[in-house]
Specification:
Elements lengths: L1 E5 L13 E3 L21 E2 L2 E2 H9 L4 E4 L23 E2 L7 E2 L5 H11 L2 E6 L6 H12 L5 H8 L10 E4 L12 H13 L10 E4 L7 H11 L5 E8 L16 H11 L1 H16 L6 E9 L18 H16 L4 E7 L9 E4 L2 E4 L1 H9 L6 E8 L2 E4 L2 E4 L1 E8 L2 E8 L6 E6 L6 E7 L16 E2 L3 E2 L2 E4 L3 E7 L1
Bound molecules: alpha-L-arabinofuranose.
Alpha-L-arabinofuranose binds next to loops.
Length: about 475
């Protein structure tokens, strides 16, 4: 097997936001996972868990999407500002029917982003909100003038505007966000975004709700009717193990066939991004409108005994492989994909962190984000992989996948060996492996970290011999060359 790098060829700069995250008011993602409140015995700064914030800083989370998800289209921002005791208590109808006390609202989210050092991406409510409500949220966040709305912000302790840039107009408007037809949504999008104003020097990056998976008609109609009014449109696609969305299967204890069928399904992201981009190319050959994959990842059954509405699942080396597959796709398409947000940061779906009380573990997916962080804002480098296929039955995948980039005179090459039980010897062509360092995440496909035992962590990679690398089965490796 061989990987040929051609540093002269590049698809462009890999936007750091491709390595973004998503956090919804769902289960224990925000509450307990990231926000515990100032009075908690869990170490925190202004209510944000110190351990989680530090871990997220380490992988250089560039952008965080909030407050949903489906929750976004039932969220009314004014319920989440002002004195805590006066905040409205609502039922979170989408996720477990639990009472949401709105103790984590606009100010808390922006404080969290400041602590992590990432950009906020707010997804606003079209489904059950009003144009005025959305417009005033933007004013509250970004205006300096002494309007009644801004004075409320001052009274709530924030003098300076935050300058929020990434602005989503509705979430899954074809489903939980209002069950709209694309023709109707396109008009609603045009109307809502009209009143989301730019204040001062801050220019909103307007994000329209794009398709679910392979709904190419949604992209076609939305581009035709609304492309000049948007900076980006979104794509949501989750990987499930079974044959359809209702056949999700367990996150752990899977068979060999289930391992390969999950990986095989995940590779569908390449086709999705390619085909949606082709449609966008017809309406926008200059690539002014970006594609944002703001929900992606594995969706398995919840862990036995947990609330089905909380979407809590374990995370194995299979998840690490799926993360590598998807990140590679986004990087290869960096000329169109400007952001992606894995679902969801903590305790929900394919999380990078799991918590239980004051304990925290880093999942294999977390370590993949660590291995890939050097690609952030780097120049993508053409990387041609000649590989065998592995798999079971019709569920095959390339044994080796890779991506490369260049920054500050160094090349970063990330490689995954997706075989469950086969080493891979790979020749590296096009660059000299004279000065090279490596890190590796390796384990059995079904292995995971839990609260008693966390065997999966990054180690120094030593399998470099001459111009070749020897990859153990089921691993992800980062090589820093030069
Ligand atoms: O991430 C969980 C849910 O999946 C989100 O709320 C929704 O947008 C999607 O259907």
């Amino acid at each position: 097997m061989k990987i040929t790098l051609n540093p002269a060829r590049s698809a462009g700069t890999i936007n750091k936001n491709i390595f973004g995250h998503f956090s919804e008011h769902l289960g224990r993602c925000i509450y307990q996972g990231m926000f515990v409140g100032k009075d908690s015995t869990i170490p925190n700064k202004n209510g944000m868990r110190t351990d989680v914030v530090e871990a997220l800083k380490n992988i250089q989370v560039p952008v965080l999407r909030w407050p949903g998800g489906c929750f976004a289209d039932e969220y009314h921002w004014e319920d989440g500002i002002g004195a805590q005791e006066a905040r409205k208590r609502m039922v979170n109808t989408n996720w477990g029917g639990v009472v949401e006390d709105n103790s984590f609202g606009t100010h808390e989210f922006l404080e969290l982003c400041e602590q992590i050092g990432c950009e906020p991406y707010i997804n606003a409510n079209v489904g059950s909100g009003t144009v005025r409500e959305m417009a005033e949220w933007v004013e509250y966040l970004n205006s300096e003038g002494d309007s009644t709305v801004v004075k409320k912000r001052w009274a709530n302790g924030r003098k300076d505007p935050w300058g929020v840039k990434f602005w989503g107009v509705g979430n899954e408007s074809w489903g939980c966000g209002g069950n709209m037809r694309v023709e109707y949504y396109a008009d609603e999008y045009r109307r809502y975004q009209t009143y989301c104003r730019n204040y001062g020097k801050n220019k909103l990056f307007r994000i329209a709700c794009g398709p679910s998976g392979d709904d190419y008609n949604w992209t076609e109609v939305l581009m035709k009717r609304a492309a000049p009014y948007m900076d980006a449109l979104t794509l949501h696609h989750y990987t499930v193990c079974g044959d359809n969305f209702d056949d999700k299967r367990a996150a752990t204890g899977f068979t060999t066939e289930e391992y390969y069928r999950t990986l095989n399904h995940s590779i569908f992201m390449e086709e999705l991004v390619t085909r949606h981009s082709q449609i966008m190319d017809r309406y926008d050959p200059g690539k002014k409108v970006a594609l944002i994959v703001d929900e992606w990842g594995n969706w398995f059954n919840v862990e036995p005994g947990t609330n089905p509405g909380f979407l809590y699942q374990q995370n194995t080396m299979r998840d690490a492989m799926v993360a590598a597959i998807n990140l590679n796709v986004f990087m290869a398409h960096c000329d169109r994909v400007c952001m992606a947000n894995i679902a969801q940061t903590v305790n929900v779906l394919q999380s990078v962190i799991l918590t239980e009380g004051d304990k925290m573990i880093l999942t294999p997916t977390y370590h993949v984000f660590d291995l890939y962080k050097a690609h952030q804002n780097a120049r993508q480098v053409d990387c041609f992989v000649e590989t065998e296929e592995v798999g079971e039955g019709k569920f095959t995948v390339p044994q080796v996948i890779a991506s490369a980039s260049e920054k500050d005179g160094r090349i970063t090459l990330t490689i995954a060996n997706m075989a469950m039980d086969k080493e891979a010897e790979v020749a590296i062509d096009g660059v000299c492996l004279c000065k090279v360092q490596g890190r590796i995440l390796q384990g059995e496909a079904g292995q995971y970290n839990d609260f008693d035992n966390s065997p999966l962590a990054l180690k120094k990679f030593t399998g470099i011999e001459g111009g070749k690398v020897k990859l153990p089965a089921c691993c992800v490796v980062e090589l820093t060359i030069g």
